[in-house]
Each structure stands twice: as structure tokens, then as C-alpha cells.
């Protein structure tokens, strides 16, 4: 059997080195599937270790996604049921000159039956990750060839072998199959509220034959995954098993609400003309000024921003929303900005962030066209280098860059001097009620404290953009001051 398979691999390599007709290319696709054992593999599992890079959380707009080391990566790919499960432990790399808290977690990620969720430790629906996890399944070497044949892929000659292209729902896949039936490269797209149609690429190399109970299976020992042109995963595969995967049962709480809405907005009056807007994992603040309303932060996505704007218009009838202030370019805090831009609201942000948004917002948005893409309205930006003030008789607003934070290099806080309220995102996230505080003080918290002292801000309350409003004493207690 091994000799026959070796002969098949050699024949496929010779075939792809010659000019091919459409029929020969089609035959070569089936030969590649035979070489990789596609028909006899309904599900497989592989183990790996390496690095993960946290998409959406770059420490500056121009920098790559931050790195983590990865151990114990086990991925189960169930082609028969269209399900995927990946579990691994990750530890953030402490980059020189960047003072971060120690961040590590065991990730336990699932997708099945058109639903995506994590165990963290209980089930949490993650609908935004469904496209990514489906792509992980169908961009794997065996999955790609299986899906290509099932979806009548087009095949053409490529300098590396043959280019194979097909559509799966609204997602288009393009891959390159090289000599010996080895899938070398796969590219598809997923939607991002910041980047629009975001390319995901897999690069496979260093194939070897893994012995399994079902016979030897060719699989890459080096998997590189890139997103938006930047490294995302870099894995070295140590083992492969052909398994009969057990069905993944969607947890009842996830099945009941697979795509939780973020449109619930709870308004809390902080002072006359100032409202704290919560109701989900990410908050905003609305401030009434003489010339209109200023909203601090546009997190998550268009759905959230539309809901916040509607709530603010109800709180301030007849008043126009003039500006939205963005604290930094992490996608969970910037994903709703385009909705404001589409409504004619000026986006206020640090100049490096604005330059990034201008570039990112030019990308195509065919998978999920938002309001700005449909209206083609030109966004308006108001930028600052280190600080900016909006004077007002009742509610002046100050914006200051947070210096020296390990979290982000283009990072701002907002201060309301009349109310003595500090508005900040991620620089301090209060420990939830009932949870144990960290054993050591988070360096991001101390950095925020030093910036408040440097700026001589008289802070009495803090409106965090994660968590509930706190008195300054709670902040000082968290710092053990």
C-alpha cells in the first residue's frame, strides 16, 4: 500500500509539472484527494505547539498582533458533521519595554450546527467567531480538498501546481495544490467591523506521513495562519490521529441564544447632562454640550452604536450628536465607529488611530455591507497628538494620551473636570463583585494612576468602559494605596 501511494504521489508531481488540460487538472484534484486520504477520513485530530497572535488587539495601530506561546494545542476537525473543536493553553509573551500583566488562559473553542461558542468555563456564545472556525475546518488540507470536490471547484494551472477555487455559502476559498497532492496555501475571508472583508490565509509546509490505525496520512507539520496580512498562528504539529469524532452538542444556553444582542442600553445619570450607557460588556458615556452631544466610545459593532445613538436621542430630544471620542484602536472599542461616521458624527481620536482607520475603512465590505459602505459617506475625523479640550460652559471635556501604558501606544483617557469624572477603557477594569482581586497589582492600573497624577486630575469617580462606575477610593484600594 505504501509503495502504491508513493507511486501515486510521484505521478501527481510529474503530472503537475506539465501543461495540463481542464480534464487532466480535474483528475489531478482527485488524485490529490486520494493521496491525502480524503475519502477515508471523516474526522481527524492533531496536536501542536507554537505561537498565537491576538487578532484585533495590536499594541499600536501600526504594530502586529501581540504574541502568545501556545502549548497543548489539540484540534478536532469533524468533516462529516461540519464541526470543529480546538483547545490549548496560551501565555502572553512579555515584550521588552512593554509592561503588561501576566496573561494566560486555556482556550476551549467550538463550532457546530451553525453555532460558535467557548467554554470560559461555562458556555458563552461567540457568533463573531463562527466564520473563522468554519474556515479552520474547510481550509485544512483534507477539508479543503473534500470541500473543493463537493462544491465543483474550478481548477487551473499555477506556477506551484494548480489553483483550486470554490464557493462555500457566501465565502470564497482559493488554494494551491502542489506536487504530490500537498495543499500548500488556502485563502478565504471573514467579516470584521473594522477591516471589512478580512483575508485569512493558511500556509502548509513540511508534510510528513503520520502512521494511524487507518493507514499512513500525509499532513503538514508546519501550519502558518495569517489574518489581515499579519501572523495569527504558527504551529508545529507533533501528532495526527484519524478518529471517529463524537457529535458536539450545542449547550442549551447557547442554542437558546446563539447570537446575543448587544442593543440593550441601560442609562444611568452621573450628573445633569451626563449619562453612563451600559447594558452589555462594553460601556459608553454621553455628555451634553452647548453645540450638541458628545459620546465617549463606540464599542463592538454597528448594532451597538445604532442602539446607543437611539438611546441618546431619547435622552436628549432634539439635540444632535456631534462627536464620538475613541480611546484606542482595539477592535472591541472601535468596532462601532463606522456607524457614527455614517450618521455624520465626527470621530475624535489620536492621530495614529485616525490614519489607521482611514486605511482600514477603504477595504471592501461585500460579506457584510454596513451603513457607511452603503451610503459611501466620507468620514470626518478630528485628531490630536497628546491632548484635546472641548470647552463648554456646563460640561467641558478633556482628552489626554495615556503615556507609557503596556496596553496601547495610542491610548487616551477622557476627563470631565466639572463632574470630576474619569472615563477610561482597559487601563483599569474593576474586579467584578464576588471575584478575587489579583494577587499582584496590575501594571496597567499603576500606569493609569501615574498618568492621573502627572496630569493633576482631580478624580472623584471613575466611569470604566468595562464594569460599573466606581468611586476613586475603590481604584486606590485596587492599587493597595
Describe this structure in words.
With 481 residues, this protein is of the alpha+beta class. The chain folds into two domains: 243 residues; 213 residues, Metallo-beta-lactamase, Chain A (4-Layer Sandwich). It contains twelve helices and 26 strands. The strands form three sheets. The protein has a 13-stranded antiparallel β-sheet with strand order 6-5-4-3-2-1-13-12-11-10-9-8-7. Strands 14-15-16-17-18-19-20 form a seven-stranded mixed β-sheet. α1 runs antiparallel to α2. It is elongated. The termini are far apart.
List the helices and strands and how they pair.
Layout: H1 2-16, H2 22-35, E1 43-53, E2 67-78, E3 83-92, E4 104-112, E5 115-119, E6 123-125, H3 130-138, H4 141-150, E7 154-158, E8 161-168, E9 171-177, E10 183-192, E11 196-210, E12 217-227, E13 230-242, H5 252-256, E14 266-271, E15 274-278, E16 284-289, E17 292-296, H6 302-315, E18 321-325, H7 331-334, H8 337-342, E19 346-350, H9 351-360, H10 371-375, E20 381-384, E21 387-390, E22 397-401, E23 412-416, E24 421-424, H11 443-455, E25 461-464, E26 470-471, H12 472-478
Helix pairs in contact: 1-2, 2-4
Give the structure's gist in a few sentences:
The chain has helices spanning 2-16, 22-35, 130-138, 141-150, 252-256, 302-315, 331-334, 337-342, 351-360, 371-375, 443-455, 472-478; strands at 43-53, 67-78, 83-92, 104-112, 115-119, 123-125, 154-158, 161-168, 171-177, 183-192, 196-210, 217-227, 230-242, 266-271, 274-278, 284-289, 292-296, 321-325, 346-350, 381-384, 387-390, 397-401, 412-416, 421-424, 461-464, 470-471. The protein is elongated, with a radius of gyration of 25 Å.
Amino acid at each position: 500500500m505504501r509503495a502504491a501511494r508513493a507511486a501515486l504521489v510521484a505521478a501527481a508531481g510529474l503530472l503537475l509539472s506539465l501543461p495540463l488540460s481542464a480534464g487532466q487538472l480535474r483528475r489531478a484534484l482527485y488524485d490529490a484527494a486520494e493521496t491525502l486520504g480524503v475519502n477515508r477520513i471523516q474526522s481527524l485530530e492533531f496536536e501542536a505547539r507554537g505561537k498565537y497572535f491576538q487578532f484585533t488587539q495590536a499594541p499600536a495601530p501600526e504594530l502586529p498582533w501581540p504574541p502568545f506561546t501556545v502549548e497543548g494545542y489539540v484540534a478536532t476537525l469533524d468533516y462529516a458533521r461540519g464541526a470543529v473543536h480546538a483547545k490549548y493553553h496560551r501565555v502572553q509573551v512579555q515584550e521588552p519595554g512593554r509592561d503588561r500583566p501576566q496573561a494566560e488562559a486555556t482556550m476551549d473553542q467550538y463550532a457546530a450546527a451553525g453555532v460558535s461558542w467557548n467554554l470560559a468555563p461555562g458556555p458563552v456564545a461567540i457568533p463573531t467567531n463562527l466564520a473563522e472556525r468554519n474556515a479552520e475546518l474547510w481550509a485544512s488540507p483534507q477539508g479543503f480538498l473534500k470541500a473543493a470536490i463537493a462544491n465543483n471547484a474550478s481548477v487551473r494551472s499555477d506556477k506551484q501546481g494548480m489553483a483550486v477555487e470554490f464557493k462555500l455559502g457566501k465565502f470564497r476559498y482559493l488554494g494551491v495544490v502542489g506536487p504530490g497532492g500537498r495543499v500548500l496555501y488556502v485563502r478565504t475571508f471573514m467579516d470584521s467591523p473594522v477591516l471589512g472583508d478580512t483575508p485569512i490565509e493558511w500556509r502548509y509546509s513540511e508534510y510528513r506521513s503520520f502512521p494511524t490505525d487507518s493507514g499512513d496520512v500525509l499532513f503538514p507539520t508546519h501550519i502558518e495562519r495569517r489574518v489581515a496580512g499579519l501572523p495569527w498562528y504558527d504551529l508545529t504539529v507533533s501528532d495526527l490521529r484519524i478518529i471517529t469524532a463524537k457529535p458536539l452538542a450545542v449547550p442549551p444556553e447557547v442554542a437558546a441564544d446563539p447570537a446575543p444582542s448587544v442593543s440593550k442600553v441601560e442609562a444611568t445619570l452621573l450628573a445633569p447632562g451626563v449619562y453612563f450607557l451600559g447594558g452589555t460588556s462594553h460601556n459608553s458615556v454621553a455628555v451634553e454640550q452647548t453645540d450638541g452631544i458628545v459620546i465617549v466610545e463606540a464599542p463592538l459593532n454597528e448594532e451597538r452604536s445604532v442602539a446607543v445613538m437611539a438611546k441618546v436621542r431619547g435622552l436628549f430630544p432634539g439635540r444632535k450628536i456631534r462627536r464620538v471620542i475613541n480611546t484606542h484602536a482595539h477592535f472591541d472599542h472601535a468596532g462601532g465607529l463606522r456607524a457614527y461616521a455614517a450618521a455624520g458624527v465626527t470621530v475624535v481620536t489620536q492621530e495614529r488611530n485616525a490614519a489607521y482607520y482611514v486605511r482600514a475603512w477603504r477595504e471592501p465590505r461585500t460579506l457584510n455591507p454596513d451603513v457607511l459602505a452603503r451610503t459611501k459617506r466620507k468620514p470626518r475625523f478630528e485628531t490630536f497628538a497628546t491632548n484635546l479640550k472641548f470647552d463648554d460652559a456646563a460640561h467641558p471635556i478633556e482628552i489626554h494620551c495615556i503615556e507609557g501604558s503596556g496596553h496601547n501606544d495610542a491610548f487616551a483617557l477622557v476627563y470631565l473636570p466639572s463632574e470630576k469624572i474619569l472615563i477610561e477603557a482597559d487601563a483599569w477594569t474593576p474586579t467584578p463583585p464576588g471575584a478575587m482581586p489579583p494577587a499582584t497589582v496590575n501594571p496597567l492600573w499603576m500606569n493609569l494612576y501615574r498618568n492621573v497624577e502627572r496630569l493633576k486630575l482631580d478624580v472623584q469617580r471613575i466611569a470604566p468602559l468595562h464594569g460599573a462606575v466606581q468611586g476613586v477610593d475603590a481604584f486606590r484600594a485596587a492599587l493597595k494605596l
